[in-house]
Amino acid sequence: MAKDAPAERMKRKDYEKELGKLQVELCHLQDYVRENKLRVIVLFEGRDAAGKGGTIKAITEKVSPRVFRVVALPAPSDREKTQLFFQRYMEKFPAGGEIVIFDRSWYNRAGVEYVMGFCTPAEHERFLNLCPQMETYLIDGGIILIKIWLEVGMEEQERRFNARIDDPVRQWKLSPMDIGSYRRWYDYSRARDLMLKATSTEVAPWYIIRSDDKRRARLNCIAHLLGAISYKRIKKDKIKLPKRSKKGRYDDQASLKGMNFVAERY
């Protein structure tokens, strides 16, 4: 039987129309989270070039960075390597009224650390055994945990890597780890499957989103996020600007004469 033809990639106009609607709902979600002091963690994992950064940007573009905080930790320092494995991630956990988005998370141990040999097989096995217990503890403590895996195909990943090589504004996205992940595609596939089997639990399941079409993936991800948190629109009084006080009135533009202004080149 012939395979179904791949879906046509979403057009920008349709994408932006739907994205605008979803971003309005994200603002309503933000109000509800802040009003009710909810604590939310969203994990983004997936292969390199799967579209994590673009999806996170679409989520956070129209909301407050004081509510939606993005955490993208660098490689651990020598000091952090001596800490409990989860310690440096817990420092970034949300307080009441916050949504913390991890652009890669403690699941580095199940992926890049395991595949590239930065942890021992015993440390990897210990992580897979203990991680569900730790996440159950978080959820029992009142944290809403949402785990998302973006799955990109082999050919699409190669296309995106080549685009980064040829584009100076995206070359910074290519690291030695990216090149290593490209070469070890099947090692990462096996590591992914071990991770999903061990850590997709009833209380903290993984949700997989195919991301060969970035636009569809972003919309599907935001729609899933909105559906994963029960929220209502918060009724707010309409804001009305007060009249400006004319007390102490003076020419506040004249006082700027002689100051250093940036040249208006555009």
From TrEMBL:
Pfam family membership, one: PPK2
E.C. numbers: 2.7.4.-
All copies of domain Polyphosphate kinase-2-related, residue ranges: 10-235
Catalyzed reactions: [phosphate](n) + ATP = [phosphate](n+1) + ADP
UniProt KW Protein transport keyword: no
GO molecular-function terms, A-Z: polyphosphate kinase activity
Alphabetically ordered keywords of this record: ATP synthesis, Kinase, Transferase
InterPro entries to which the protein is assigned, alphabetical: P-loop_NTPase, Polyphosphate_phosphotransfera, PPK2-related, PPK2_PA0141
BP GO terms, sorted: ATP biosynthetic process
Top-rank taxon, per record: Bacteria
Subunit structure: Homotetramer.
UniProt record similarity statement: Belongs to the polyphosphate kinase 2 (PPK2) family. Class I subfamily.
PANTHER family on file: ADP-POLYPHOSPHATE PHOSPHOTRANSFERASE, POLYPHOSPHATE:AMP PHOSPHOTRANSFERASE-RELATED
Function: Uses inorganic polyphosphate (polyP) as a donor to convert GDP to GTP or ADP to ATP.
Name of protein: ADP/GDP-polyphosphate phosphotransferase
Organism of derivation: Bradyrhizobium neotropicale
Lineage of the organism: Bacteria, Pseudomonadati, Pseudomonadota, Alphaproteobacteria, Hyphomicrobiales
